[in-house]
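Sharing in case it's useful to others searching the archive later.

Someone asked me privately for the predicted structure of Nitrogenase iron protein, so I'm posting the question and my answer publicly. Question first, with the sequence:
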Amino acid sequence: MTRHIAVYGKGGIGKSTIASHTAAALGLKGFKVALVGCDPKKDSTFLLVGNRNVKTVLDALRRKEDIKECIINGFANVKCLEIGGPEPGIGCAGRGLTLAFEHIEKEGVFNNIDIVIYDVPGDIVCGGFAVPMKRALEEVYIVTSGEYLSLYAANNICKAAGNIGAKLGGIILNSRFDLKKEYEIVSSFAKMIGSRVIGVLPYIMKIRECEAKGKTLFHFSDRPDEAEYFIKLAEEILKNSCKVVARGIEDEKLLNYLMDINI
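And my answer, the predicted structure tokens:
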């Protein structure tokens, strides 16, 4: 049975880096993995395929082409697929996701895949962006730093998950300024919403080079210790049996908490 995992978080918080590295780590372990980019910018799979100019599912549907032709075999044999989006200023990205997944389901794109990871952009602003969450109803992860806006987005995502009954597998801390302090902040936040921190990633300078070259940390043999962070995260996700229907907290309560700790 295919395991569906959705990764959410504020825009620019590192979702795509984490989703692609997790997919690569699982692929290197021998799992048949698919990574689905749900961002209209179509950059979720870039580190695995090294190319931003890929044909998307919505491109194929517009041209009446086979959507299976959009699947690219990326690093670690990960099957990479970008949903794409409408032309800027025209159409609705959320509606595009709904349409794309209807065809993906119909065509059986993920038959014979062990794990599908969905990389979903930003905050939940419409029902369309909750479609991957509904597909990964048993396992949603939220990426955040210890910063207010990141936690605010994480809280809203948690509210969305609670509204549709999706289970939260945990919070992934992607540190931005002070790992120790951020861990304390995010751990407390996780407890407030009834979840826990499942992964901790320090700030890794090498990621900038990865993003420039379209490669993962696994491509660079000089810093295997940094890639180990993602291997550990993948292992934690693999064995995770603690998934709950978490509930977001009131915005005022979150703000008051962060003000109390002077962030």
